[in-house]
UniProtKB/TrEMBL annotation:
Signal peptide: none annotated. Residues 54-185 form the Fe2OG dioxygenase domain. It comes from Corymbia citriodora subsp. variegata. Keywords: Iron, Metal-binding. Gene3D superfamilies: B-lactam Antibiotic, Isopenicillin N Synthase, Chain. One of its GO terms (molecular function) is metal ion binding. The lineage of its organism: Eukaryota, Viridiplantae, Streptophyta, Embryophyta, Tracheophyta. This is Fe2OG dioxygenase domain-containing protein. It holds the Pfam family 2OG-FeII_Oxy. PANTHER family: OXOGLUTARATE/IRON-DEPENDENT DIOXYGENASE (PTHR47991). The keyword Metal-binding applies.
């Protein structure tokens, strides 16, 4: 999908942003459907359980101009993405990193593609437009009963209302720890 750049003729891009946000929501719901199916759940399980008809969607735009001294570049500190998905569009300049197995790994931008992230990442020296897709603020977030048996497959996190999780995430200093680490059982 292609979106024209913001300009005066489209009221500072509000029409473009609205169209983009609708398309991202549709993409997110399709990804959640596939995720449900991959877990052998009904296709709409996550969508329904997280009350996605009332989901929270946050658009952020970050611009990191080139720096003549790369060692002094300041981006966003390492953090945990708090929604179900973060769908990221970035220009061709690298800088995004994800933490995998305790190591930071560069994620090279792929032209004309979205990066779908549900983990920690670090932003530096680039432009990115993440849009976090989360459940309804009053959704109760818990593992599907079919996936938890109490012995071998126990719940790994406490059951929480999503708005409480957001408040917890926003109340902590971004110290490189995932907010999920704070709510483990």
């Amino acid at each position: 999908m292609a979106f024209p750049l913001m300009n005066e003729s489209n009221v500072c891009g509000s029409d473009v942003i609205a169209e983009y946000s609708v398309a991202i929501r549709k993409l997110a719901r399709g990804l959640l459907k596939g995720t449900s199916e991959s877990l052998a759940l009904e296709p709409g399980y996550i969508d329904k359980a997280m009350n996605m008809d009332r989901s929270l969607q946050i658009l952020t735009a970050n611009l990191y101009p080139p720096c003549p001294q790369p060692e002094l570049v300041m981006g966003i500190p390492s953090h945990s993405d708090y929604g179900l998905l973060t769908i990221l569009m970035q220009n061709g300049i690298g800088g995004l990193q994800v933490n995998h197995g305790g190591k930071w790994i560069n994620v090279d931008p792929f032209p004309n593609a979205f990066l779908v992230n549900n983990g920690d990442h670090l932003e530096a020296t680039r432009m990115s437009i993440p849009q976090s897709i989360g459940p309804s603020p009053d959704a109760i977030v818990a593992p599907a009963e079919q996936l938890v048996d109490g012995e071998n497959n126990r719940a790994m996190h406490i059951v929480m209302i999503y708005k409480d999780y957001l408040e917890l995430q926003q109340s902590n200093v971004l110290d490189g720890k995932s907010c999920l680490e704070r709510v483990k059982t």
